[in-house]
Amino acid sequence: MDDVKISFITIVLNGMPFLEYSLKAIYPFAHEVIIVEGAVSAARFAANPDGSSKDGTVEFIKKFPDPDRKIKLIQGLWPEKVDMQDTALRYVTGDYIWLVDSDEVYKRDHILRIKQFLRDNPDVTQINFIPYNFWKGLDYIFVSSVFELPSMHYRRIFRFRKDARFISHRPPTLLYTSSGVTADRLKVVDGFQTRRMGLEMFHYSYVLKEQVYQKIQLYSRYGWGNIWGVDLRRWYNECFLKWTPENRREIEKEWGVWTGDKLSYTVKFEGTHPEVMEDFVKKYGRNFY
Length: 289
What we know:
Layout: E1 6-12, H1 18-26, E2 32-37, H2 57-63, E3 71-75, H3 81-89, E4 96-99, E5 104-105, H4 108-120, E6 126-129, E7 132-135, E8 140-143, E9 154-159, E10 164-169, E11 172-176, E12 181-182, E13 188-189, H5 191-196, E14 202-206, H6 209-222, H7 224-228, H8 232-240, H9 248-254, E15 265-268, H10 277-284
Parallel strand pairs: 1-2, 1-4, 2-3, 6-13, 7-14
Antiparallel strand pairs: 4-9, 5-14, 6-9, 8-15, 10-11, 11-12
């Protein structure tokens, strides 16, 4: 294939400010960017009465520079996130789909290298990552042995076929309906391999208090705190809000900094961020302790 056409898919509710930098990172390399916006049933608490974002996400998307007319915005109310992803597939015209969270950013060179890898390996049906998950800023990440489990690697890139549909969001699972086979059962590049290749995923997922508070409210509605054995409201108040680099050892003796693992903890991030995050730092700063 002469060129690899990637259809980036983002599902979002209240994605600011990270959505700006996520879009800036992927736009130059996209065949198209399909954004599905709005609240799922359990997240109506965080939305406008019509189900749309409250934080300016829709207005930002509509004003985002789109000289090549790559962006497709689909809005609505959704039963669940898998329905948002599945709806996006109706608009895909590329060779691959790449799921990108609104708070997820990539380096330019890494996107180019992935495109070349797909060009050289057309039999690949899925690519996974082990992410850097950032914590209260750009200087710390949280780590957990759970993220090393192959089943927990972030499924992001899939070979697109006209008969494809998503049958799960957690984890994203793409089914080729004509054969009854899912992409993860065919040719998969797992997170260990992308890590060895030096391909990184930057997930600014636990950085801002408003962002994390919305997560905690949603997780509570799903009952995940009971499953994890965590009082999510106490975790937010006693762990996330109170955590600082100075007291982190003390806080982390009592709390897992990631809600899904009581043994998770923070470490200093020693790498470099995607290029677009330089503008984020200029506008918002590096840390939010």
